[in-house]
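Q: C-alpha cells for this one, please.
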Amino acid sequence: MEQVEKSHEIISINEMAAFLLDAGVFLMSSGAHSGRVWRNCKRMAAHWGFEISINPTYTGMLLTVWDENNPDNAVTRYKSSPPSSIHMAVLSEISRLTWQIKDGDVTFAAARQALEEIRVRSHYPFGIVALAVGISCGLLAMLAGGNINDALIALAAASTGSLVRYFILLNKFNNFLSVIIAAFVSSFIAGLDTIFRIGSMPEIALATSVLYLIPGVPLLNSVIDLLEGYFSASLARSLFSASVLLCIAIGMTITIMLLGISNF
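A: Here is the predicted structure, written as C-alpha cells:
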C-alpha cells in the first residue's frame, strides 16, 4: 500500500514525508524546540492517517512516516535544516496552520501552498533589527547602572556589530567567525570609552554591547529538549551555545588586549 485515503484526499506516503520534513526543519530553523516540532508534525500527519517518529538535531531532522493502518508502508528520510533565523511569528503561523489542518479546514495542496507562503515571507528590514538590537543593549546598560551616555555608546556599538555580523553572514562566512568579529567590533567601539570617558561607567557599556550575541533561544531550547527526552538535540544545542559564548569571549578578549583594559 503506497497511498492513504482520508478526509476525501489521497496522499502518497512520500508526499507526506516531504511535506512534514519541510515543515519540521523550517520550525527548527525558526526557533522551535524539538517537542514543538514533533507535536506540530504529528498533528498534521494524524489528520491524513499517518504516524511519525522524529529524531531532530541542530543541523537537520530524521523523519519516519508510516500508514497507521499498515505499518509496513513506511518511509524514512533526512533533511538538513536551513541556517537558523529566529522568528516567533513563523512558529505561531505554522502552529495555526496545523490546527486548521486538524479541523479539516485546509486541504493537503492548500497546506503545502500555505507553508511555502510562510517560508518566503520577508523578515523585518535588517536596519530596523540592528537599531532595535542597539536600543535593547542601551536600555540594558541603563538598567545596569549606566547613564544616558553609556546607553548611547552601547546602542552604537551593538547596532554596528549587528550590521557587521549581518554582512558577514550575507557573504556565507562561518557563523562562529561572524560572532567573533561582531563581538570584537561591538566591544572595541564600547571599549573606546575607557580612553575618552564619555560615559560614567565604561565597563557597563562594554559588557552590555555584546549581549545581543547571547544565544538565548538555543540555550532555552536545549533545556526544554533535555526535559522532554530529546537528548541528542539538547546536547547539540548546548554545544552550539557554548561555542557561541566562547566566540564572544574571544572577540572581547582581543578588544581588552588591544585597548589595554585592566579593570574589566
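A few notes: The mean pLDDT is 90. The longest helix spans residues 231-259.
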